[in-house]
Specification:
By secondary structure, the protein is an alpha/beta fold. 18% of the residues lie in helices and 36% in strands. The radius of gyration is 20 Å and the shape is globular. The protein binds FE2/S2 (inorganic) cluster.
């Protein structure tokens, strides 16, 4: 795999693994080469899916001083690509390959107002930030939205720690988040840090732009696997290299191309950096854009995709897909 990250890999030993909410497992790792995890940092972890090693990223929820122990939390989602099942099966004493903490969602200290927004398991990306902002006595509001309380990890701990600074929205209780109201409440100099499903982040991004707030004050981290549609198998072709391969439901296009022997560039593997971009030459079906790299206009043009997260979906009923009803995307790589 060609990657631009200067990752330092090490061994992480599981010292705790417990259920903290519906389908959410908290896993504490003791790294062999500890390094402090700043707020917003994550670990890349090597998981085994169907006998193959794949890389997955998980936010660091808590870090003991000097990074001697790092806590992450993993949601076993229905649309999981297999990594979360591997992680949920880990037991105390197991070890796995992990990176030292990596940072691409840094918290800027010194803003006048902070808004932290977490949707579901996205809370893991902002828990550490909120703790730091509280310790700094910063002006912050932490908005946490979820389906129901049982599915919201760390909810009671966050309520104890943040008190009135925490605003909770629960769909099943009829208190769903209203994004327009939230964005309307932001000051012109508010910095928003968010992590959640792509639909939520997309709505926030549109509302932010509509209000003409400073776009550089909108910062986000993605899951890398949440899309507009459930993942389905599809075919990817690269005629220039004589490659045609099927992308499994539990696999990204990037992983499928790598498995087919194609040298691919990648970095974040979460749809943020654009390094894995491929050009679409032909498409039988449609694209489920799952990145946050392209603008809406670029996504609608369907000329390029971030193949680490985005997928092809079959044509709508009535149209015919070429192979066994699967979508087929023909691409070129530079
Ligand atoms: S590797 Fe960064 S967007 Fe795909």
């Amino acid at each position: 795999m060609a990657s631009t990250n200067n990752e330092v890999w090490q061994v992480g030993t599981v010292v705790e693994s417990r259920r903290i909410a519906t389908d959410i497992q908290r896993i504490v790792l003791e790294p062999s080469r500890p390094k402090t995890a700043d707020p917003g940092s994550h670990l890349d972890v090597m998981v085994t899916i169907g006998g193959e090693e794949r890389k997955r990223s998980y936010s660091v929820v808590e870090s003991e001083p000097n990074g001697q122990r790092l806590a992450i939390s993993v949601l076993k989602a229905p649309q999981s690509r297999g990594g979360s099942i591997f992680m949920h099966d880990l037991e105390v004493g197991d070890s796995l390959e992990i990176t030292q903490p990596l940072q691409n969602f840094p918290l800027r200290v010194g803003a006048k107002h902070y808004l932290l927004l977490a949707g579901g398991i996205g809370v893991t990306a902002v828990v550490n930030m909120a703790r730091v902002l509280k310790n700094l006595k910063a002006n912050y509001t932490f908005v946490y939205a979820g389906r129901n309380r049982e599915a919201m990890g760390y909810l009671s701990e966050l309520q104890d720690l943040h008190g009135e600074n925490l605003v909770v929205h629960v769909d099943d209780e009829g208190t769903s988040l209203r994004v327009e109201e939230l964005v309307d409440s932001a000051h012109m100099d508010t910095e928003l840090y968010m992590c959640g499903p792509i639909r939520l982040m997309d709505v926030v991004r549109r509302a932010w732009i509509e209000r003409e707030l400073n776009f550089t004050n909108l910062r986000y981290e993605t899951f890398g696997n949440s899309g507009w549609y459930d993942p389905e198998e599809f075919i990817v072709r690269i005629p220039g290299l004589g490659v045609e391969t099927k992308v499994g439901k539990d696999q990204s296009m990037l992983e499928a191309l790598e498995a087919a022997g194609v040298e691919m560039m990648s970095d974040c593997r979460k749809g943020e950096c654009g390094l894995c971009e491929v050009k679409i030459v032909e498409l039988d079906g449609a694209i489920d854009h799952r990145d946050v790299f392209y603008s809406e206009r670029q996504q609608q043009a369907t000329k390029k995709i971030c193949c680490c997260v985005s997928r092809a979906i079959p044509p709508k009923s009535g149209a015919s897909a070429s192979i066994d009803g699967l979508a087929v995307v023909t691409v070129s790589v530079s």
